[in-house]
Amino acid sequence: MAIAPRPTGAQRFTDARARKIAELIIPAVTEQGLHLEELELAANGSGTTLRVSVDLASGTEQVDLDTVAAVSQAISARLDEKDVLPELDSYDLEVSTPGATRPLTEPRHFERNLGRLLEITQTGGSPMLARLQAVDADSITVAEQKPTPKKGMPVKYADPTEISFASITQARVQVEFSHTE
């Protein structure tokens, strides 16, 4: 991607405490069939909040609330067992998913959003709305949404086109609401 992708693996956790926590909780996260997206220790008034973001490693399904609750309990148990933050009297644990409109920065983020409408900006270009049709190692295939001539008219798409990851400067999912009468 044209913008530096988010670091992967151990490089994601530059802070020594975050790296130590990640090493401890990754087994609890993967046991639930999830991937650790992000981990952040943030000052919160007089306390500290540990924010953990998890997602499914593949597929297009969404993480359900029962799974988030189960991984939260598993992480909490691991943290209590190892007392990984002894310098903190207390901390709040927040476990969530990245959210529908997070930036898509890795090929697996695109794979998780096959079939969805994306807003994509390429180097030197304007944002475009396009339906994600395929993802491979170096690029995505999309069909650009054409402007509708009148409100209420069906949406039409251009022929599929390939966009290299190297040319993408920004990409986000566009939340769509279906309307039924």
TrEMBL record:
Keyword set includes Methyltransferase: no
The protein's name: Ribosome maturation factor RimP
Domain (Ribosome maturation factor RimP C-terminal): residue spans on this chain: 104-177
Primary location class: cytoplasm
Record CDD domains: YlxS_C (cd01734)
InterPro entries: Ribosome_maturation_RimP (IPR003728), RimP_C (IPR028998), RimP_N (IPR028989), RimP_N_sf (IPR035956)
Organism expressing this protein natively: Nesterenkonia lutea
Family: Belongs to the RimP family.
Residues covered by the Ribosome maturation factor RimP N-terminal domain: 25-100
Signal sequence region: none
Pfam families: DUF150_C, RimP_N
Entry function: Required for maturation of 30S ribosomal subunits.
Cellular location(s): Cytoplasm
Alphabetical list of HAMAP family matching this protein: RimP (MF_01077)
Keyword Cytoplasm recorded: yes
Keywords: Cytoplasm, Ribosome biogenesis
